[in-house]
Design goal:
This protein is an alpha/beta fold. The protein folds into three domains: 155 residues, NAD(P)-binding Rossmann-like Domain (Rossmann fold); 163 residues, Dihydrodipicolinate Reductase, domain 2, CATH 3.30.360; 83 residues, ACT domain (Alpha-Beta Plaits, 2-Layer Sandwich), CATH 3.30.70.260. Helix 1 packs across helix 12, helix 4 packs parallel to helix 5 and helix 14 packs antiparallel against helix 15. It is elongated, with a radius of gyration of 24 Å.
Length: 440
Amino acid sequence: MDKASINVGLLGWGTVGTGVSKILLKQNDLIEQNAGIQLRLVKIAKRTLPATRPGVELEAKCLTTNPAEIVENPEIDIVVELMGGTDEARLLVAQAIRNGKHVVTANKALLAAHGFELFQLADKHNVSLNFEASAAGGIPIIKTLRESFAANRIHSIYGIINGTCNYILTEMHENEVDFDEVLKDAQAKGYAEADPTFDVEGVDAAHKLTLLTSLAYGFAMPMEGVYTEGITHITPNEIQYARELGYVIKLLAIAKLNQGRVETRVHPTLVPIRSMLANVGGAFNTVCVIGDAVGPTLFYGQGAGEMPTASAVVADIIDAAKSISGTVRSQVPRGWLSGSQANISLCPIGDVETRYYIRLVVLDQPGVLAQISSILGEHRISIASVIQKERHEVDDTASLVIVTHKAVEKNMQTAIQEIDTLDVVKGTSRLIRIEEEVAF
């Protein structure tokens, strides 16, 4: 064996693992030419055997069902965790680190839940724990926040970082179909899992935002600190009315620094129809970062899929290999060493201030708007515009769409609860936040 080569083992050989193995086997010469690193894929652990992958030729001894053959193997320098989940992955990653191995992972759920522990462990054992593919797939946003923007104070991050939700909302906007129909289509095309809960309820995006926030603001962001709301309640009516008002609905992951407090939230959001974010369609991802020195920046690309995500994983493998060779010293992100940063705290969702879209179904009779306006006014909420839609002859109701000026979230929630108890209001109102700052 060439002593100059650096040996790699994969834990997991699913979609992304297959892509990583393809790149390592087929692009080895290119990697050596561009990065000065010679990588050698020596072992892959998979839950069941035999296993083959189209376009991947492996020696039989390369495959195993025992992950210990990778994490305990003294000849393997870099362990790549692509198995998913948190419990087993946590144990294996921790053991690999204790054995002095550098680790690469695409597992955002693992890092969101156990990142603080694992990064502390990596620092103790002087190894790297790289995770570029854990947020936004092939978009190099992790490296950008860690390195390129190191001299910037990050004002805000806006991300469309879940391809499943973006595909569903794009189809609803363009083809005027309802959520359930598009979800079935997304599952048939492989954009959504058989159980899509993590995606459509915003959990996947919240995991990713946890990592981005930690990097941007230098503290170990707790997953439970991210306000999370999914898209299952978005209807064709909301899509249509948003369009009429000049907006598109997107599931946004948002982090903002405001007077020493960071607000972190994932929820459906009305964004201006002419903004760049509004025009990110299908399963694509985008991340907008606004820094004090660099200003607004936009990163766009494939947020998932075999080869885009594998590209990010291999980039991390190369960085880890450079750390081993002494070319680059890979450091643990500062926030995960201290656990928190002075002068930075989390802003609870109740203190967030933004504009709102409200849709109510009300009796079509005089005085209704006055009652609703009175309640909003009592809670310091100012109305920017009101649109009454067509009357429903069956029950003498009409849809009332209200857009507010900026208001405090806790005031809005209290007001909506009171409004929903009015006799003239039928059913539960729809509330969607509006972000105007993404207009670039």
